[in-house]
Amino acid sequence: MEKVAFIGLGAMGYPMAGHLARRFPTLVWNRTFEKALRHQEEFGSEAVPLERVAEARVIFTCLPTTREVYEVAEALYPYLREGTYWVDATSGEPEASRRLAERLREKGVTYLDAPVSGGTVGAEAGTLTVMLGGPEEAVERVRPFLAYAKKVVHVGSVGAGHAVKAINNALLAVNLWAAGEGLLALVKQGVSAEKALEVINASSGRSNATENLIPQRVLTRAFPKTFALGLLVKDLGIAMGVLDGEKAPSPLLRLAREVYEMAKRELGPDADHVEALRLLERWGGVEIR
């Protein structure tokens, strides 16, 4: 059975690599190596030094930004073998990913951008959606290894996956903030947010924000930390790059970025993205509940 490797055992990468380890011989590496050792104990993967990652036929990365992926790729570069596939689940930058693909091609390594959607719940359940950018042959070659995915869509050439992911997260930001504004106004009018959502979620205004994020996190005041506000702002910046590159009219998405930049400054980058609605509550003087 072919060996795989996973680099980056964060909130998403840790369970994703766990699904791989249940089905394939899996090498794992993390900057904090104790986490790799813990993964080895929990899932039966093998914690290895970085250079041994190159033993795998398929290398997965799930890191904060493309910059970290580049750094790891350069460190691994002398050890990489021709015929290796590099599947990058990072929410990265399309243009930088194209440059990395060219760099890896010099070693006979095929790079695919393969960001995911579904959050930590989807990562743990193995039900993530993967948006893949790369050659058709390579996509089909790596598809059987995507053990953490329920849905896999080949969206285009290298960089397309990261572009789709960035726009998707920009839409998440818009939907969340817009729902927060509307609900805040209704609460101030004396309508309970729970009752308002009961109507909205049976009507045309519903979204993942109204169906899941706000009921489970805002109304309960739980605000679990699953996706950092700073990372959402990073993704909004990538989305702006996509929009700028195509000179696409986008007043609403650009305004959303400004709003979330403000929330990041007020709440800090480590706050969960849903906590951005705390800023709305502060401005409005009421809680959404």
Automatic annotation (TrEMBL):
**Domain 3-hydroxyisobutyrate dehydrogenase-like NAD-binding: start-end pairs:** 159-280
A Gene Ontology BP annotation from the UniProt entry: organic acid catabolic process
Q: Which PROSITE patterns match?
A: 3_HYDROXYISOBUT_DH (PS00895)
Which Gene3D superfamilies does this one have? N-(1-d-carboxylethyl)-l-norvaline Dehydrogenase, domain 2, NAD(P)-binding Rossmann-like Domain
| Pfam families recorded | NAD_binding_11 (PF14833), NAD_binding_2 (PF03446)
Domain of life per record: Bacteria
Q: Which residues form the active site?
A: 165
Tell me which residues make up the 6-phosphogluconate dehydrogenase NADP-binding domain: 3-156
InterPro entries, alphabetically? 3-OH-isobutyrate_DH-rel_CS, 6-PGluconate_DH-like_C_sf, 6PGD_dom2, 6PGDH_NADP-bd, HIBADH-like_NADP-bd, HIBADH-related, NAD(P)-bd_dom_sf
Q: Which SUPFAM superfamilies match?
A: 6-phosphogluconate dehydrogenase C-terminal domain-like, NAD(P)-binding Rossmann-fold domains
Q: Name one GO molecular function term.
A: NADP binding
Question: What keywords does the record list, in alphabetical order?
Answer: NAD, Oxidoreductase
Keyword Oxidoreductase belongs to the record: yes
Fetch the PANTHER family from UniProt. 3-HYDROXYISOBUTYRATE DEHYDROGENASE-LIKE 1, MITOCHONDRIAL-RELATED (PTHR43060)
Q: Which family does it belong to?
A: Belongs to the HIBADH-related family.
Q: What is this protein called?
A: Beta-hydroxyacid dehydrogenase, 3-hydroxyisobutyrate dehydrogenase
